[in-house]
């Protein structure tokens, strides 16, 4: 990508740990799909606080396959009222398409690394 090694050495480990946009998008869309399947109608008032808390939770999510959904289980139960059946569906649905979220995470990490490198070049 043409990013300097010094920039990549800083951004790649940091972003791999805290930048999980694909996982966040996946969790929100899967949660809303399951809510619709179960007859619930998610509202902005119920989903927006969940999204904000999920953004904070994803900083601490482990970088292993399925780690994001496991970190989000408490939020799904307490904030969106998921029962055990919904949790089971959520885990299965999330794991079935986890690779797409990972692809989004990696692409976003690369874009942020390139942006940081470009900003750093302008300051030098």
Automatic annotation (TrEMBL):
This protein's record includes keyword rRNA-binding: no
Keyword Membrane (UniProt): yes
Record-linked Gene3D superfamilies: Sodium:dicarboxylate symporter (1.10.3860.10)
Transmembrane segments: 12-38, 50-76
Membrane topology type: Multi-pass membrane protein
Gene Ontology terms: cellular component: plasma membrane
Organism domain of life: Bacteria
Signal sequence segment: none
Keywords, sorted A to Z: Membrane, Transmembrane, Transmembrane helix, Transport
Gene Ontology biological-process annotations: serine transport
InterPro entries tied to this protein: Na-dicarboxylate_symporter, Na:dicarbo_symporter_sf
GO MF annotations in UniProt: neutral L-amino acid:sodium symporter activity
Location relative to the cell: Membrane
PANTHER family to which the protein is assigned, alphabetical: PROTON/GLUTAMATE-ASPARTATE SYMPORTER, SERINE_THREONINE TRANSPORTER SSTT
Full protein name: Proton/glutamate symport protein
Organism: Halalkalibacter wakoensis JCM 9140
């Amino acid at each position: 990508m043409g990013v300097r090694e010094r920039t990549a050495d800083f951004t790649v480990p940091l972003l791999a740990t805290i930048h999980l946009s694909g996982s966040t998008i996946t969790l929100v869309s899967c949660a809303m799909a399951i809510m619709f399947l179960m007859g619930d109608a998610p509202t902005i008032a119920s989903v927006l606080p969940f999204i904000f808390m999920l953004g904070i939770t994803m900083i601490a999510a482990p970088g292993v396959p399925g780690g994001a959904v496991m970190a989000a289980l408490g939020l799904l139960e307490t904030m969106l009222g998921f029962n055990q059946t919904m949790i089971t569906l959520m885990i299965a649905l999330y794991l079935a398409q986890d690779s797409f979220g990972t692809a989004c995470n990696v692409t976003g990490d690369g874009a942020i690394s390139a942006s940081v490198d470009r900003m750093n070049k302008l300051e030098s």
